[in-house]
Amino acid sequence: MTAIAQEPDFDHIIDRRGTGSLKWDRYAGRDILPMWVADMDFAVCPAVLEAMQQRLAHPIFGYTRATPGPAEAVLAYLEKTHGVTADPSWIVWLPGMIPGLAMAAASCGVPGDEVMTFTPVYPPFLHVPKDVGRGLVAVPLMLEGGRSTFDFAAMEAALTPRTRLVMLCSPHNPVGRVWTRAELEGLADFCVRHHLALCSDEIHGDLLLDPERAPFTTGLALTGPIRDRLIVLMAASKTYNVPGLGLSFAIIPDPEMRRKFQAAKNGLVAETNPLGFAATEAAYRHGEAWRLALCRYLRGNRDFLAAQLAKYCPQVAMAPVEATYLAWLDVRALGLAHPAAHFEKHGLGLSNGADFGAPGFLRLNFGCPRSVLEEGVRRFLQAAAATP
Ligand SMILES: Cc1ncc(COP(=O)(O)O)c(C=O)c1O
After folding, report:
1. May I ask the CATH class of domain 51-286?
2. 323 pLDDT higher than 90
3. Could you tell me if 253 and 227 are in contact, meaning their C-beta atoms sit under 8 angstroms apart?
4. Architecture, CATH, for domain 22-45+288-385
């Protein structure tokens, strides 16, 4: 299916209050617009919903393993969209991405060894290594021409004899970068030279806002010795707005890496679920036209937000968002002691940069109807104007 009968109506407002939504229920009963946790306020792709409804028609929901369908759909999608081939045996299904990050960290080295990651970053990257007894080597990204990139000199300096793994967010949450092939090759070379494994979290890899200018390169496209030390984590969950279904997967080309990764499940990681498989297979098989329409809509939202801030609040710098629906805002010039609390007080719920390792920054989720974003921007500007 390449066309959709009707353009999806991303402008349509759906009331999510009272559905147990993490995003909305945090502020239940208060006039605070939630633009924090990373899910979108859009209905799912009709093909995904249909596949789930079909699965619901069978009345038993026992422990479920993947049938060949989801892997076939993933592999066909990867080949068509990202130009890479993989083998079904390389796939390890997981009940979410965070368990995958934990398994990657636990499968490299032994307790007391270290994981390197790049800050600011999605908070679990900072916690998961510690949860599995690993140390954290956090290296700040550096700014080059207004864009964040890897600071190889700082990485060399921070490395210790116990560093075993680099945990990469690709594209990067929260700075919105889509790493270029050259950047990824540089990182792969760094890993190989220092005998490090590379875990690439690509949950945002299909939310591309400028695919012509900033095309996505999956870790699976890397060649050479890095392939023996590579764990790629993917999911349909962010792109197709089904993160609550908890299904993701790892693709690990090397059998020994895969064996260690699976062993790290260690009785702690839950089963995968049948609706997650139905949604994932349908998304990769039939979701492409919907995904492209979504990315166009999100691009419009990003451009609107960037233009409003540049015009009415130039003291707040917004990083160029090449992928994701998350804007990373530098609000240090506003001189706020507690920026997230200040914006909450003015009716806007944003993610606190301090949780990502960057106090003075805020993350704004623009995965919502344009009119909701307009209201969010109105509140943002009001709050920004009401600073000490
Ligand atoms: C980079 C990244 N990885 C993982 C996750 C969480 O994935 P899951 O809900 O499947 O654990 C998120 C959610 O925002 C994310 O942004």
Report:
1. alpha beta
2. yes
3. yes
4. Alpha-Beta Complex (3.90)
